Amino acid sequence: VLGVLCASRAVDALDDAMNDAGLVNDRDSKGGPGNSNEPSKLVDRIAEEGELDEHFLVTALRQGEVALFEAAMCKMTELRPTIFRRILFESGGEALALLCRAIDLDVETFLTVYELSRKAKDGEKITLSEERIKLRNLYESANRDDAEKVLKRWRRSAEYLHALNKVDGDG
Question: Which of 122, 107, 90 is nearest to 54 (CA)?
Fold first, then answer.
């Protein structure tokens, strides 16, 4: 176990060093600064005004402004849109729970985002109280520091993650 923890820390240190050195540059493909699409521009202005918050996220989704919601979440999480969409529409909601925990959205906002995103994707209303309870328990039991570490890994470039997974698989 100690060897695995040391190896994990070494990989994290290498990840950080490569990103800090500019050896991995994927800023242009993110939904953050430098992205020229209209929802991202609007989100940048809203963020500058200090209005990019949980209320904005839920309002955008409730009004069917999915592109605006995605741009806002990409801005808040610093994730590329493709990665964010995978997390958002992952079937069980576990990844979305960790993402929301990492950026410190409250549990009710997370559950609302989960339900509205399912409605936007499938046109279905989530009514299973068991599913809400399961996701609430997962969110509340998740350690924020650990969730932030997971988010940090999701931010890595796709090419770099692919190479890292290949090395991990060979070892």
Answer: 107
